[in-house]
């Protein structure tokens, strides 16, 4: 049985004790829940891959509570790193630097390592008390939607990890923006809440090339080549003006803005957003996918959003659906 730890000092003390003993503890962040192990404990880090069923060529993000931790595990740190940290940490920006002093399990054998300072006081306290950073891939079974609540972690990993530190619902709801600072030009490897425009003042040459992560090419972010964020039930993307074509049947689930759901009586519905708030839609996406991942549901339709602030949302929805649209359901 996996222990659920409360968001208080006793909960943190217990998590510290377990992590120091090489055990795995899931922790809250503002993006999604992470699956924690001490970053310098090769055996515990290997157990993270086991618990998730994660391919071991997919490296982990190292979560820090201060910059000394980064400086201990990174080399050749460029000035822009400090400028980015000043503006965006703690927050949902992961930065890739040249690694040193870390077990191969963390970096999946790469010469680089990803760092983030999460915006969760509870987790920052936990890391500060450990005095060492913790690795933290999303705390889900590999390939499934990331957990935004302790209950999601429990569903996927009960019995496979020692504890979950329950910090409530993750505010952002999708994983961090990953930026590689080790190449000749900086690259966004994964879109997140912090957009290319947000970063442009500090990184004027920053590129986001969706082809970097397409199946045919060698991916820069190793994780991107795997199927991701997918429930067992097939997911279809649907535009606002197509929603009325979805049959109103009890075995179908529709995830859309509240204004687009009013005509459905039989279908299962989920209010993704109000007034097309992309923040709200992003916050709710994984919860909706998990809620409808049940045998009674034969398809999940999810509304598409447009605009730069929807880049992260659409990236996860593309992957969850495998690019399938309403027309693919109708065929
Ligand atoms: P998650 O599976 O949610 O932990 O996501 C972590 C993401 O960061 C994955 O897509 C990894 O491939 C990526 N990542 C972590 N470390 C590195 C690295 N050194 N170089 C490139 N991508 C990395
Ligand atoms: Mg993940």
Question: From the coordinates shown, what is the CATH architecture of the largest domain?
Answer: Alpha-Beta Complex
CATH class of the largest domain: Alpha Beta
Distance between the termini: 45 Å
Task: Assign a percent range to the helix content.
Answer: 25-40%
**What is the count of structural domains?**
2
Please tell me the overall pLDDT: 95
Helix and strand sequence: EHEEHEHEHEHEHEHEEEHEEEHEHH
Count of DSSP H/I helices = 11
Heterogens: adenosine monophosphate, magnesium ion
Largest sheet: 11 strands, mixed
Beta-strand percent range? 15-25%
CATH fold-type name of the largest domain: DHBP synthase
CATH superfamily of the largest domain: DHBP synthase
Helix/strand-derived category reads alpha/beta
Number of strands: 15
The stretches of 5 or more residues where confidence is low (pLDDT under 50) are: 213-217
How large, in whole angstroms, is the Cα Rg?
A: 20 Å
Shape label? globular
Q: How does this structure look, described?
A:
There is one protein chain. The chain contains eleven helices and 15 strands. With 331 residues, the protein is an alpha/beta fold. It has two domains: 3-208, DHBP synthase, CATH 3.90.870.10; 235-328, Rossmann fold. A hairpin with a 6-residue loop joins strand 10 (177-180) and strand 11 (187-190). Helix 1 packs across helix 6. The chain binds adenosine monophosphate and magnesium ion. Adenosine monophosphate binds at residues 58-61, 96, 107, 110, 112-114, 137-138, 175, 178, 189-190, 221-224.
